[in-house]
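Recap from last week: sequence in, structure out.
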Amino acid sequence: MILGKITGNIVSTIKLGVYKGYKILIVQPINPDGNPHGNIILAIDTVQAGPGDTVLVIDEGNSARQIIDDPMAPVRSVIAGVVDEVRKDII
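Predicted C-alpha cells:
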C-alpha cells in the first residue's frame, strides 16, 4: 500500500466501460510526515476521496481488480481508503 495525497482529478470524455462510475484521481505518494515521496500515480477512486485527502492506494493489479470486482479489468491502482490521521508514535 502507498500513502498518498490527492492532488487533482482526470477528466475523460471517453473511457473503457470498466471505468464508468469511477473517478480517476491524481495521487502524490507521501511519507508519514506528509512530504512528497516518489512519482505521481493515477488511481481509481472507490471511496469517494477528493483533492486534499490523504489516502491509501493499492498499486497491484490483482488486488485492484478484486476491489472493483472484475477479474479481467485493465486496472492496477485503486484508492482503498481515506486516512483520518497518521500517528507514528503508536509503532
